[in-house]
C-alpha cells in the first residue's frame, strides 16, 4: 500500500472505508436502441450515506490526496462486480477505472480477473471504462496495462470523449472497443448544428475504426431522435434510466418503435431500406478466389471484407481488374490475401442513418463511394451493402413525393404531408407543439398592392418560418393562402416563435410604401365593398402543446390549433397566444387555460 497522507482529516476514515468496503454500488442502464432492453450497465459507486465521502467526487479526490487511489479503485471494482452478479443483471458491465491507477507500481493486472473467477463472472462480459479525471502521462505504460486486460477477454471503453485532457489521442493510442461521447455534445444537439457535426464526425471515425459509440447524457426524446438519425444505437442518460440499486433491464422509450428492423415499406427514409445481402469475404480469402467470384457474379461491383463480424475493407472490381491486367500480376498476387488489395477506408454507415444524412456523407467524400457503394452495419456488425444508384432512386422518390404535395408558391409541404406528419407523431407517442401561423389583414394588402406583391410576402413568411425552426426536429407546412402550420419538437419552441414575430416586425417595412407606414395603414374595400381603413399586415401565432396520448387523430390536433389561432387573432399586432390544456384522462373533455403574450 502507498504511504498515506496524514494532513487530510478524511484519510483515516477513507482507509477504513476501503478496508471494510463500506461502499454502495448503483447501476445505470445503457440502452440498445433497436431493442427494448439494456445492452449493459455502468457500475457507479457511492460512499457511506450521510457522509462527506458519499459523493464519488469527494471520495476520489480525497483518495488522490491521501495516496489511496489504487486501493480505492480496487475496492470499488470488487463492490460493483459482486453487486452485479448478486443482482443477476444481464448484458455487459461497464467498470470504471482511473487510467492513472493502471500505471502505478502497485497495480496488479490479474487481480480483477481473479475476483471475477471467484464470483463467477465471465471477463468477456466486462468493459473496462477509462475515466480521464487527470492528465495521462505515460501512454506506453497504459497501453501495456490494457493489453493484459484484452488478452484476458475484457473490452475497453473510453469515457467522456470530447472532454478531458487528451481523449482523442487516447482513442488513437488505445484503440478502444467503445467511446462515450461527453454529455455536453449531446444536450441540446437538436438545436445546435456544431454539436451535430461533432457527433457525426465521431460516428464516422468510429465506424471506420471498428469502435461502438455510446451517447451519454440523453435526457429528452428530441436528443434521442437526433442520435438515432445519425446512426448511433447505444445510449445512456436519465431518459434511458437513472442510476439505481436494482435497475430495470427492460427499457421502454417512446421512439424505440422507430428502430425496429427496417424495410423499404416501413422506413424508406433510412439507409437500411437500401440493404442488399452481399456475402462478405474474409481476410483469409485470396485475390484469386475473390476474382473468381466477381467473374461469376457480373452484377457485383465490390465485395466487403469482414473480420469478427466487423467490416474492415472493400474489394472493388475495378481495382482487382486493374491489378490482374498487368503482366504476371495474377501469378504474383493471386494467392495473396485479399486484404492486400482492399480499400481500407470504405464508407460505412449504420442502417438507422437517414437517407439525407447518407447523401450528405457521400457528397462530402472525395472518393468514389457513389459508384462503389457503401457498407451497412448494425451496432458495428456487418449487415450488407447499399449502392449509390439505389440511394439516388430513393432520394428522387422522396423528392417527388414531397413535390407532389408541396404548396406551389412556397414549396413547403401542403395539407397531405401535414396530416401525415401529425398522424406519425401521434402514432409514435411523441409530444410536440402545434403552431397555427396566420397573417392578419392580408386580403386588403392584396387589393392595394396586387397579388404579385402578396405572393412575395407569403414567400418571405415561408423562408422566415424555416430560418427560425430546426430542420432536424421541426416541421414547417403551408396550409394555403396566408395560413401556415409549425410542428415543433425543439425544446426552445417558445423563444423560436418570439424570434419569428420579432423578425417579421423588423422586416415588414420593406413591403409597404412610406406613406402607408406613416399612416400605419391604408384605405381599401372591405368584404361588403365599402372603403375603410385597414391596419398594416401583422402575424398571429396560436400555439398549443400536444400530449400525444390525449389525441387520436390529426383532426383533433387541427381543431386545437384553430382554436389557438382564433384566440391569437383577437389581439392587435404581432401576437403569440399559447393555449395550455389541462387533461385529466385520455380523450376526456379538455379544460382550457389561456396565456396571451403580445410581442408587438
From TrEMBL:
<dbReference type="Pfam" id="PF00571">
    <property type="entry name" value="CBS"/>
</dbReference>
<dbReference type="InterPro" id="IPR001633">
    <property type="entry name" value="EAL_dom"/>
</dbReference>
<keyword id="KW-0129">CBS domain</keyword>
<dbReference type="Pfam" id="PF00990">
    <property type="entry name" value="GGDEF"/>
</dbReference>
<dbReference type="InterPro" id="IPR050706">
    <property type="entry name" value="Cyclic-di-GMP_PDE-like"/>
</dbReference>
<feature type="domain" description="CBS">
    <location>
        <begin position="274"/>
        <end position="332"/>
    </location>
</feature>
<feature type="domain" description="EAL">
    <location>
        <begin position="7"/>
        <end position="257"/>
    </location>
</feature>
<dbReference type="InterPro" id="IPR000644">
    <property type="entry name" value="CBS_dom"/>
</dbReference>
<protein>
    <submittedName>
        <fullName>GGDEF domain-containing protein</fullName>
    </submittedName>
</protein>
<feature type="domain" description="CBS">
    <location>
        <begin position="342"/>
        <end position="402"/>
    </location>
</feature>
<dbReference type="InterPro" id="IPR046342">
    <property type="entry name" value="CBS_dom_sf"/>
</dbReference>
<feature type="domain" description="GGDEF">
    <location>
        <begin position="430"/>
        <end position="581"/>
    </location>
</feature>
<dbReference type="InterPro" id="IPR043128">
    <property type="entry name" value="Rev_trsase/Diguanyl_cyclase"/>
</dbReference>
<dbReference type="Pfam" id="PF00563">
    <property type="entry name" value="EAL"/>
</dbReference>
<dbReference type="InterPro" id="IPR000160">
    <property type="entry name" value="GGDEF_dom"/>
</dbReference>
<dbReference type="InterPro" id="IPR035919">
    <property type="entry name" value="EAL_sf"/>
</dbReference>
<dbReference type="InterPro" id="IPR029787">
    <property type="entry name" value="Nucleotide_cyclase"/>
</dbReference>
